[in-house]
Write a structure and sequence with these properties.
By secondary structure, the protein is an alpha+beta fold. The chain is built from 13 helices and 21 strands. The chain has two domains: about 325 residues, Zn peptidases (Aminopeptidase), CATH 3.40.630; about 120 residues, no CATH class. The protein is about 30% helix and about 30% strand. The radius of gyration is 23 Å and the shape is globular. The two termini are about 45 Å apart. The relative contact order is 0.12. The structure holds zinc ion.
């Protein structure tokens, strides 16, 4: 451990030396926001022009178009490598899924300038990087959270109905990065905070996966090992670290953000990736304090890359083990978990709105989600041929499936939903079914689809398809036809194959 830490510190020192880039440094134009004196956010047109100028410089191997938005803007991804890759850690970073959170995009462009100059070459000895600087170009141009179709992309990573999220998952499935990072901004305030007279002043919040179905190493290692390094690095650069939490008011109990697998962090962690969310402090408006916001994100991104580079071997080995465990898993799957109050309190840095006085308050904390409902893992599912919504969903996730070519008898569990109750889960109305299960021999028709679970997507498939999953597709309006009452839920649990 000491040795790797020392290497990390050395690499950081090298990375921050000016002029180590050598050959191409003179040819690399400054990032657009630097050219504009940090006065405003970069337009999508300027971003595309800038990436074109960087392509081929230093380790910036190429710029790919990975998708097209509903308003016909292209989504570029920058591929960064300085040589043969077989043993390197594959790292994928995507920024500004929420269009009104542009600082991740701006930091990514400055990072690319530094990479093109060769300043991060020491880190690239152990990692390759796939960087999507602007994952929601329409929303970014419209200065809004949603994409051009009015949808929240960071709630779409399970159902994949939007071109932007499909593009990210197509790339993920193609390159299978071991480490993934989703970069956002957070609100410092809110009505209840304003009434209490405070706003929160942490600069960069880091969030680990919290869904209890995600392997424990993936949930804990970053929190215990990487977050202290992020805290030290950010503080050295003049920024405040915090573990990502949400809290409605000073009197509320805070918790880590959602357990849902529909966000960029959790959906990829559910497939065994070392996955995080980074949240930088936002501004009062789209352009407000964009320089301060960008520099905070750049500091966090730089320390993150230094950490994963220094720990590349450890992360690769652990991710490989996590990915082998998912298809082979025999444990039950958790369908409901809730943050229960643990009695802890956490110090939180705040500033008074009147007078701007800094202080630290203590806020009650719900630290870990507790599993409350589980079900045994089946060997596979059968989806009847008529269920196009579900079969198309499996296709969008590149799930391995087998279409039956002849009538086939199987031992299955049938789930009949007697009624759907609604109650609030993580602030949203959520469906909880009353289910009666029975076991039977059933002959399925040619054309029906068998979805085996001995694949990397197994956990995501179970969480998506089980009707009692609070994270399941039945919770989404486009899948409302699945909300049958007094009839069989049209997904069958295969007991043996
Ligand atoms: Zn966001």
């Amino acid at each position: 451990m000491m040795r790797t830490m020392r290497i990390a510190i050395l690499l950081l020192a090298v990375a921050s030396l000016p002029g180590t880039g050598g050959l191409h440094a003179g040819d690399v134009p400054r990032a657009p926001i630097v050219q504009h004196g940090y006065q405003r956010v970069t337009t999508h047109e300027e971003l595309l022009t800038y990436l074109g100028q960087l392509e081929g410089k230093g380790p910036i191997t190429r710029v790919e178009t990975i998708g097209t938005t509903t308003q016909r803007r292209t989504i570029p991804m920058v591929v960064i490598s300085n040589g043969p890759s077989a043993t390197k850690l594959r790292v994928m970073v995507f920024c500004s899924q929420h269009g009104n959170e542009p600082s991740g995009k701006e930091a990514a462009l400055i990072l690319l300038e530094r990479i093109a100059r060769g300043e991060l070459d020491p880190l690239l000895a152990t990692i390759d990087l796939w960087l999507v600087p602007s994952a929601n170009p329409d929303g970014n141009e419209l200065q809004q959270r949603w994409n051009g179709a009015g949808k929240d992309l960071n709630r779409d990573h399970l159902i994949l109905m939007q071109p932007e999220t499909r593009a990210l998952h197509d790339v993920y499935d193609r390159i299978l990065p071991e480490a993934t990072l989703d970069v956002h901004e957070f609100q410092t305030s809110g009505k209840a905070w304003e009434e209490a007279g405070y706003y929160r002043t942490m600069d960069e919040q880091w969030g680990a996966p919290t869904n209890p179905n995600v392997g424990i190493w993936l949930r804990r290692y970053g929190v215990e090992t990487m977050f202290p390094a992020m805290k030290a690095g950010l503080e050295a650069d003049g920024f405040r670290f915090y573990n990502y939490t949400i809290v409605g008011s000073p009197a509320d109990t805070m918790r880590h953000s959602t357990t849902n697998v529909n966000d960029g962090r959790q959906s990829l962690a559910g497939q065994g990736s070392y996955s995080f969310i980074l949240e930088g402090r936002n501004g009062a408006t789209f352009h407000d304090e964009i320089g301060r916001r960008t520099k905070g994100q750049l500091s966090a991104l730089t320390h993150y890359l230094a950490f994963v580079s220094a720990h590349a071997g450890t992360i690769r080995a652990a991710v490989s083990a996590a990915r082998a465990a998912i298809p082979a898993g025999r444990d039950s799957v958790v369908l409901l978990a809730e943050y229960l109050f643990s009695g802890e309190a956490m110090p939180m840095p705040v500033r008074t709105i009147a007078g701007g006085k800094d202080s630290v308050i203590r806020v009650l904390h719900r630290s870990m989600p507790t599993p409350l409902v589980r079900t045994a893992r089946p060997a596979a599912y059968v989806i009847p041929a008529a269920q196009h919504l579900l079969i198309d969903l499996m296709r969008r996730h590149h799930v391995a499936m087998r279409t039956l070519t002849a009538p086939t008898a199987m031992r299955v569990e049938v789930q009949t939903v007697q009624r759907w109750k609604t109650r609030i889960f993580e602030e949203d109305p959520t469906l909880f079914p009353d289910i009666v299960r029975h076991e039977t021999e059933r002959t399925f028709a040619a054309g029906d689809v068998l979805v085996p679970l001995d694949q990397l997507k197994a956990m995501l498939i179970m969480l998506a398809l089980e009707p009692a999953s609070v994270w399941g597709v039945v919770q989404y309006d486009p899948f409302a036809p699945l909300r049958v009452v007094g009839a069989e839920y049209p997904v069958y649990r295969v007991l043996n194959q």
